[in-house]
Design goal:
mainly beta; six-stranded antiparallel β-sheet; three-stranded antiparallel β-sheet; 11 strands; 5% helix
Amino acid sequence: MIALARSATALIVGAASILAWPLVTPAQAAPLAVCQWEDGQQSSTYSCTDFADTVTKAEIVECWKYPVSPRTYLRQKTEAGWVRNSEITLRVRAAKSCEETHPYRTVISVAPTLLAEMQTLRIRMVMPATSGYLDDSTAYSYGKTVVTYGMCLMPEGSLEDCPER
């Protein structure tokens, strides 16, 4: 069985997008950045978008060495545990924007209304064990893979990163 390897720059490559329609939180006094990280590795994977007055979209983009199972699913951490949320979606596809060695891409889209200043939203992506053949007939197989991410809005001028949890 092979490990489901991913690109070392995956979290930085896609980070998050800030576009046009407004999301204004009641306490917003300064422009905001969407920040994200991989759970347990915040110091090495923490990245943020540029600061903007409005946040319209937040995405976590990762590139993978092998195809991602179509049975991959997402959960959000709540007081009730890990639950599905229709405002957090997943797209899986081959992508030219990824490195040649990691041509398969996952895009997790998060509705801006789920994000809050300096409050961590935790998202878990679960990829079931999968096997198959690449386009060149090379066989691949990997075990269940679970990746947990954190995401939040950070105000400009903040002296601290968002809390990991």
